[in-house]
Design brief:
single chain, about 300 residues, mainly beta, Carbonic Anhydrase II, eleven-stranded mixed β-sheet, 4 helices, about 10% helix, globular
Length: about 300
């Protein structure tokens, strides 16, 4: 909200209009971007020297919120940790995680890979506790935030995501909020080594699309075994921004090369969220008041370096 102007994803107040109220949205370090695999610089040795690590106690997920443009789970951050890889020795704490999706299963992700979109994209947002005292302070610094990005592809139902989907009817309208009583483990929402992609005889190793030249060697499905500490080196990383206003250029992006599967039914539950408060009349405009196509289109990478760690 800026004055009486509220941003959203419509043609009237959507991404192409954000810069009018949020000048940072026109910066040179904006996100998302299209991952052009032939432009990626391999930096495996440097990145693997300090492996990417995370720790997420299931009890850290405290509150499910409908802010009017997605679903979001707020955490208390206690016991959470992200470090290593492009973050080096700095320690980051999980602040919240949320999701983006489309009106159909063919689009919904914010980042794309060689122009190909996925059905959705999960973001785990962290802030640098080694250098800053609060999330708000970190969000203004160039190295203040780190976001783990996970692509979603339609397939079988995801067990941990289903815990979230079952709660969404209780936050169906904007500003609805409920406390989370059943533990939701963020680590089980991440793709890691040791899942189906690591089994050479698994049918689940099929490509996202056999026509994609990169699919067989980069994007594969994966399952998470659920341990709190994980170490995976298959990701892309670059310096970018928040993908929602005010679009602060403070994010180190870490995008996993492996996707997770969610079901068509689970995505349809996401699409039933309302973008207007309970008790108000449904706005008669595009999307009929439901939260769909809540993604910002890719922006130019420009002179930024897109690095990768690991290959398949």
């Amino acid at each position: 909200m800026a004055g009486f102007w509220e941003w959203d994803y419509s043609s009237q107040n959507g991404p192409s209009k954000w810069v009018e109220k949020f000048p940072m949205a026109a910066g040179s370090r904006q996100s998302p971007v299209n991952i052009e695999t032939d432009r990626v610089e391999s930096d495996h040795e440097a990145l693997i020297s300090k492996p990417l690590r995370w720790k997420y106690p299931a009890t850290a997920s405290r509150k499910l919120v409908n802010p009017g443009y997605c679903w979001r789970i707020d955490t208390d951050g206690d016991g959470t940790l992200l470090s290593g890889g492009p973050l080096m020795d700095d320690v980051y704490k999980l602040e919240q995680y949320h999701c983006h999706w489309g009106c159909s299963d063919s689009r919904g992700s914010e980042h794309t890979v060689d122009g190909q979109a996925f059905a959705g994209e999960l973001h785990l947002v962290h802030w640098n506790t080694s250098k800053y005292k609060t999330f708000a302070e970190a969000a203004k610094a160039p190295d203040g935030l780190a976001v783990l990005g996970v692509f979603l592809k339609v397939g079988k139902a995801h067990e941990e995501m289903d815990k979230i989907a079952r709660l969404l009817p209780y936050v169906s309208h904007k500003d609805d909020c409920i406390e989370i009583n059943e533990p939701i483990d963020p680590s089980k929402l991440l793709p890691v080594r040791g899942g189906r992609a690591g089994s050479s005889n698994s049918a689940a190793q099929r490509c996202v699309n056999p026509c994609m030249r990169w699919a067989g060697r980069i994007i594969r499905p994966a399952e998470n075994k659920g341990s709190q500490w994980q170490d995976d080196n298959g990701y892309w990383t670059y310096l970018g921004s928040l993908t929602t206003p005010p679009c602060n250029e403070s994010v180190t992006w870490i995008l996993f090369k492996r996707y997770i599967e969610v079901s068509h039914h689970q995505l349809n539950i996401f699409r039933n969220l309302r973008k207007f408060p309970r008790g108000e009349e449904c706005p008669c405009h595009e999307n009929h008041g439901v939260v769909i196509n809540n993604f910002r289109p890719p922006l130019p990478l420009g002179n930024r370096v897109l690095r990768e760690c690991g290959s398949f």
